[in-house]
Amino acid sequence: MSAQTPDTLPPFQIETFIPRTDSTPKQLDILLNRPDTLPRMVDTLVAAVDSAIARVRLARNLGIREEVNYGARDSMYFDIRNKQLHLWGEAYVRYTDLDITAGYILVDYVNNVVTAEPFPDTSGRMQGIPAFKNSDQNFTAQRIRYNFKTEKGKIQELSTRQEDLYVVSEAGKFIGTGGDSTLSPVFYNKDALITTCDAEHKHYGIRARKQKVVPDKLVVTGMSNLEVAGIPTPLILPFGFYPITKSRKAGLIIPRDFEFADAEGLGIKQWGWYQPVNEHVDLTAQFNAYVSGSFGTLITTRYNKRYGYNGNLQLEYNRRVQENAQAQKVTQQSYGLRLTHNQDPKAHPSRKFGGTINLQTNNNQSLNNNDYSNVFQNELRSNLNYYQSFPGKPYSYSASFSHSQNTRTRLMNVSFPTAQFTLQRIYPFKRKEVVGKSRWYEQVTFVLRSEMDNRLSAPDTAFFTSETLRNSRAGIRHTAGSDINFKLFKYINLSPRINYEENWYPYTTRRELLDSIVYRYDTIRDPENPNVILSIVVDSAATTWGLDTMFREWGFSPFRTFDAGVSLSTALFFTQQFKKGWFRGFRHTIKPSISTGFGPDFSGSNYFRTVETDLRPGFNDTITYNIFEDNIYGRPSQNSRDIVLSYSLLNVLEFKHRSKKAEGGLKKVRIFDNLTFSGNYNLSADSLQWSPISTGGLFRLFKGVSQFTWNTSFDPYILNERGVRVDRFVLKEEGKLVRVANLGLALNTNFSVGQLRDMIQGKGKAPAGGYDDLAGWLKDFHVTHRIGWALRPVPGTNRDTFALTTNNISVYGRIPLSSKWSFDIGNISYDFPSRQIVYPDFGLTRDLHCWQISLRTQPVRGTYELFINVKPGTLDFLKVPYRKNNFDGRAVF
Fold first, then answer.
1. Dihedral Cα 205, 211, 215, 216, nearest 10 deg
2. What is the pairing mode between strands 821-831 and 800-816?
3. How far apart are CA 563 and CA 595, in angstroms?
4. pLDDT of residue 45
């Protein structure tokens, strides 16, 4: 290729292509001394000069300063006479951040215009659909004309994507920013379709004759109508405004749903406002409102700091106003608070903070949701923790907030504030540099712990009141302990210990018998009409003279105690190995231990007071109470200190068998782990000195799919005719060592069909048929089964009965009926003892590519919903909803 250099071009310098370095003269000398390389170098330089001159000429004629890069796979042609550049076959033109590609590109540097079109291949098919890319937008079209100077263009058959929206138009104009960073590029389209469908032939869309698109900001349309499968529908929209911004901007949240309830009237749902606070925090406020006066609000704030933390906070309030059968207005109010905070593991090496809070009143989530998990979530829990360690130091500090709430009893328990300071186990007498054998006193250890707690308990509807705060239980506890380990006869561990405890309380308890009479009334009703009361009489036997009332005496009140003890422990190993066969041996490990201790006797101290039980002469018996009985930590015992010998027997049983998969050809299996038998013997008691022997354990079956648990106790004493323990041994009376006093068995199974298939066939070995076989069809199907038995005494007798206590099965998951249909099960449970189905929750879903149809119902609650809607996105307001919620609401559109 050759080119002529215009007279106006600056003289060409060879330094442009051979960079000047210290070794450049030497390289030139080598080239001059090797004539065979010189022609090749000259050809390379000439081609580079021609290309550079062409790019400079193109840039100068287009009136721009930056260099223009261009190229094509097949050929290129400079039309000097008409000042045009033709590019064929995978052609491209690049200028700064602008990139235009097409099958054919024509650059007219007289008019500063680039034209891009497809180009037919040898078979006549059009190849190379024009594509336009820069930092602001990205689109394709059948024909693009673009002016470099004005940054304006004309487009035919435009196709572009803005976030989840696809815009297709017959023709349009493009107006750039003209170099002004304060402006945004704009598309003006004619006969345009806006949709979220990504198929080549769009299944639906909103058709408008005129449309304006501001990339990454919004799409505005005039009069438009919904089009389904290319067929216009009667649904007409007078105008359209569709935000598509990537950045966070304050704005109105358009309502997504309308609802009509027989009891509440017409309502509008999920309308509100979005407000970004700064680059780390945003705020969303959403509202629901009904003409009856029912109202709900949900305020959500999200926060995120990279490499630091992230989380969200939700505050919810709902006020339901309905009319009952007597035309009286009934109001139900409920609150909800949810907080999630997560700290990045790399945020701080020694400080951690995170957790969740989930509080609600008046069953807020059950009243306003219908799914199984919300309706049947009987227990709500919260845990928010702060932990601080000190590198190189043996102590740490932590603080926490915890909460538990039973949605059936409505009782809420909160512990806040809670704090702990812990000194880890240290050896205060250990030498820094050990020389020779360790001395006995160097094994002395010391631990210290201080903790503070404040507990509040009340029904959720009355929790946030001053009365709940006044009834809180608070205290501070300090504990310190020291122990040492000795070896006796090489195999027995001897461990003496001593512990000290000090509790600080802000109050003590005082009980008084008030001078009043409490009556118990008996109501006599008409047998034929229970609503009619015939008379009310006083039950004289239940009349109480005086009211036993508990008061708090505020003031600093400490309580101190200590205890000391000693324990002995060892380990015994029984092993048997075999050289032949599948079974190669077993090992039984037994770890027996005994311990005893003693402490002070507080029975005669001023920690105990007396109060009368009746004000009437001759009936005024007294009872003794503990002034610390309402406090949260330790309290003195009124009983004399007994000398009790405690014992335990821990068992571990393992065996080995041959296995080709195991390393070395042998696999170790643990039959039971930490199977413990424990009890005590009271040396100070005059009868019933032996306590029942307790034991329990867990077996994991089928690789953890099932868990078999048991707990039982054995009693060496018999029961009398009334079922009370008496001081007579079972061995002497019945010839048995012990009797079974309590027994509980439970088998819990939880698995998915896919998990079960992997366990049988091997992980990752899916059936070749995919969903064609039953296991693949049900692979996301989960099954949970719980069954339990218990040994229970028969009241009034010394006999027991073994009864089934629990037996229920529940299933949940998704079953793909085909590639488009699925049967969704939120929960279906069956309780065998009551022979009842427990809250079925299931639905049917059909995938229509960009649309979906779903039917979901909860028959026990009497709720259902039917939706034909666009999949979640900018246009998901296009739906046909109909549902009935737990307040008899029906959605309309």
1. -60
2. antiparallel
3. 13
4. 40
Inter-residue contact 504 to 556 (CB < 8 Å): yes
Q: What angle do CA 202, 208, 210 make, to 5 degrees?
A: 130
- The whole-angstrom separation of Cα 682 and Cα 646 is 9
Do strands 240-243 and 218-221 pair parallel, antiparallel, or not at all (unpaired)?
antiparallel
Q: How many residues does the chain have?
A: 893
List Cα–Cα distances, 334 to 248, 308, 461, 517, in angstroms. 31, 34, 8, 39
Report d(CA 620, CA 679) in Å as an integer: 41
pLDDT at 262: 67
Residue at token pair 């300063």: 65
Report how far residue 168's alpha carbon sits from residue 156's, in angstroms, rounded to the nearest whole number.
10
- CA 309/CA 436 separation, integer angstroms: 50
Q: What share of the chain is helix, strand, coil (3-state, %, to 5)?
A: 10, 55, 35
Q: Which residues contact 123 (CB under 8 A, 6 or more apart)?
A: none
SS3 of 318-370: EEEEEECCCCCEEEEEEEEEEEEEEECCCCCCCEEEEEEEEEECCCHHHHHCC
Task: List residues bridging with 670 in a β-sheet.
Answer: 654
- Is-contact 280 303, C-beta < 8 A? yes
Residue 325 backbone phi and psi in degrees, to 5 = -65, -25
In three-state form (DSSP H/G/I as H, E/B as E, the rest C), the secondary structure along 21-72 is CCCHHHHHHHHHCCHHHHHHHHHHHHHHHHHHHHHHHHHHHHCCCCCCEEEC
By the 8 A CB rule, do 160 and 213 touch? yes
pLDDT lower than 70: segments of the chain: 1-66, 135-136, 179, 181, 245-249, 256-257, 261-263, 324-327, 368-377, 517-548, 618, 640, 761-776, 795-798, 880-893
Q: Are strands 608-612 and 666-682 parallel, antiparallel or unpaired?
A: unpaired
The answer to whether the beta carbons of residues 238 and 269 sit under 8 Å apart is: no
pLDDT, residue 235, reads 81
Q: How many CB atoms lie within 10 A of CB 543?
A: 11
Other Cβ atoms within 10 Å of 516 Cβ, number: 11
Alpha carbons within 13 A on the beta-carbon side of 450: 6
Kindly report, residue by residue over 506-534, the tens digit of the pLDDT.
999 998 887 776 666 666 666 666 665 65
pLDDT at position 30, please? 40
CB count, 10 Å around CB of 372? 22
Integer CA distances (angstroms), 761 to 658, 754, 756, 758, 767, in order: 20, 10, 9, 5, 9
Beta strands 152-162 and 138-140: pairing type?
antiparallel
Q: What is the pLDDT of residue 75?
A: 87
In terms of C-beta distances under 8 Å and separation of at least 24 residues, what long-range contacts does 813-822 make, across chains too? 813/752, 813/778, 813/780, 813/781, 813/782, 814/780, 814/781, 815/777, 815/778, 815/780, 815/781, 816/771, 816/777, 816/780, 819/771, 819/847, 820/846, 820/847, 820/848, 821/845, 821/846, 821/847, 822/847
> What does 262-317 look like in DSSP terms, one character per residue?
TTTEEEEEEEEEEEE-SSSEEEEEEEEEETTS-EEEEEEEEEEETTTEEEEEEEEE
Tokens encoding 647: 């014992």
Tell me whether residue 698 is exposed, middle or buried, using C-beta atoms within 10 angstroms of its C-beta: 0 to 12, 13 to 18, 19 or more: middle
pTM for the full predicted model = 0.66
Count CB neighbours of 213 within 10 A.
29
- The model's pLDDT over 820-872, given as tens digits with 9 standing for 90+, comes to 888 888 888 888 988 888 878 888 888 888 888 888 888 877 777 777 778 87
Q: Which amino acid belongs to residue 125?
A: R
Give the Cα separation of 51 and 3 in Å (integer): 9
- List Cα–Cα distances, 498 to 61, 298, 476, in angstroms: 96, 55, 21
| Residues near 249 by beta carbon (within 8 Å), at least 6 away in sequence | 276
| Tokens at 149, concatenated | 């100077």
Which residue(s) pair with 608 in the sheet?
A: 626
